[in-house]
């Protein structure tokens, strides 16, 4: 995977006049499922698609925001996939490529482009959106995009699966299951995971992966207080006014160690996360619990 990503990034940087570009991109939430789906499906297209087409997985966020996605960064770092190989939304001009008739797009984990990219709709050639493919085929209302991508690879080119790809897809499927707060893995998920585990018996135990993902999901290690608040940023709106709300979890004793004013975060600080909140020059929301 890292060889493919490095080669794709290098071609993008070197080629001022690209002929054909096929971009695989997910929603702005850039969750683990959509990111891994974009990586693996672009890799798949690169191997089975027509020659002369540059297949690129694009993360639908600016590079500066990637620091907030702790569980995603952890999995990629564990598999030795450097951040420098990633292509972020602010590093490629999709609109120019589309105007030149060179762009095709596969959407993962979403059936719609972001509002600022609506003019790119004519370039969309495929949608991998589990919400649209649920029903009789799946027991869960919204299975993961990674599951759909893996099914296509197993069906069309199973020889492309490596242990590294298996780890990426398996971790993504397990994380999606965790996020859905379901007690049991569905039969379809179990079937697919069992295929991977039988093919690659050296994969880490599921319990280990789940425990690590749970720890990293809410980890703020290496982040400042401001970055921690931005990582958890949510917006509430009554249709007219938007309010930014964020939380920082720590015990009361630790909070008292911070200088006065630490918890006042200016509205301008939220602009990197593309927040459009109208109210409050400062966001001071926090939650805490008293230590034992």
CATH architecture of the largest domain: Alpha-Beta Complex
Query: What is the H level of CATH, i.e. the homologous superfamily of the largest domain?
Result: inorganic pyrophosphatase (n-terminal core)
Pick out the low-confidence regions: 134-141, 274-292
Report strand order across the widest sheet.
Answer: 3-2-1-4-5
Number of separate domains: 2
Through-space gap between termini: 45 Å
Percent of residues in helices comes to 25-40%
User: How do the helices and strands follow one another from N- to C-terminus?
Assistant: HEHEHEHEEHHHHHEEHEE
CATH topology title of the largest domain: inorganic pyrophosphatase (n-terminal core)
Cα gyration radius (Å): 20 Å
- Beta-strand share of residues: 5-15%
Helix- and strand-based class? Answer: alpha/beta
Commentary on this structure:
- InterPro entries: DHH_sf (IPR038763).
- It comes from Microcebus murinus.
- This is Prune homolog 2 with BCH domain.
- By secondary structure, the chain is of the alpha/beta class.
- The chain contains 10 helices and 9 strands.
- The strands form 3 sheets. Strands 3-2-1-4-5 form a 5-stranded parallel sheet. Strands 6-7 form a two-stranded antiparallel sheet. The chain has a two-stranded antiparallel sheet with strand order 8-9.
- β1, α2 and β2 form a beta-alpha-beta unit.
- α2 runs parallel beside α5, α5 packs antiparallel against α6 and α6 packs across α8.
- The longest helix has 17 residues.
